[in-house]
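Q: Hi! Curious about what Sulfur carrier protein ThiS looks like structurally. Here's the sequence.
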Amino acid sequence: MKVQVNNKEVETDASSTITKLAGQLELPSNGIAIAVNNKMIPRTEWDEFLLHENDRLVIIKAACGG
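A: Let's find out. The predicted structure is below.
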């Protein structure tokens, strides 16, 4: 199935969760937040949150500095 990640099309498994997609994209285990269709998803829900065709994800990475 196809989803949009930061405005780029990504192909993933039909039964993909946020955790599986994060692993597929090789995202760091800390310092990121993910929103699906403009709703922030708590990290505690990533394992159970099923993605659907055409979902739009925004991945935000924390940066040090000021």
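A: A fun detail: The first strand starts at residue 2 and ends at 5.
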